[in-house]
Description:
The structure is a single chain. This protein is an alpha/beta fold. The protein has two domains: 3-43, no CATH class; 51-183, 3-Layer(aba) Sandwich (Rossmann fold), CATH 3.40.50.1980. 44% of the residues lie in helices and 13% in strands. It has nine helices and six strands, in the order H-H-E-E-H-E-H-E-H-H-H-E-H-H-E. Strands 1, 2, 3, 4, 5 and 6 form a six-stranded mixed β-sheet that branches. The radius of gyration is 16 Å and the shape is globular. The relative contact order is 0.16. Mean pLDDT is 83; it is low at 16-23.
Amino acid sequence: MNSKITSLLAIISQNIGDLALQSDDAFLIENLTERIELIIHKLKFFPDKPKVVCIEGLSPIKVVDNLVVELVEIAGGKPILIQNEEQSLSKIWEQIAAENPEIIIVMPSGFTIARTLQQMDILLGLPGWKDATAVKNNRVYIADASSYFNAKSPHLVNSLEILAEIINPQYLNYGYEGTGWIKFEC
């Protein structure tokens, strides 16, 4: 089994109350493994990986942790890594803008899509927001972090599928658009 799949299954196991990858869970494990393998298989033929930043905090801006970074990689993106030290909003945004992401996914921890929409003014008011490649190319998305990107969520494979849909919409469609994520019209 691929090490990325093994790693992700171990994380899922820990996060859903110690599913414990036992033989009586064979069907569930097989299903999760197949879903992950499908994404990896489809995307291995497409070497171009767009630069992706996932924003999990808005005030102050904070980017995602290692788990979502790993999901972005499996989903076919090249995650932008920013140090989440105590920095001002403008400093973190300057770092993100310097990396010029092709895709911005806004997923504030614990926020629904509706709640995130109410907070988007924070990003829209940043200097240079309109100049970002993701904004110019209309590749800004809002994900339902409350349901799918909670560190203790049993839905990590769903989260992976959501990211794969967002990053590679021309190749993957799992039907989460509108419920798990939306495109933000800039």
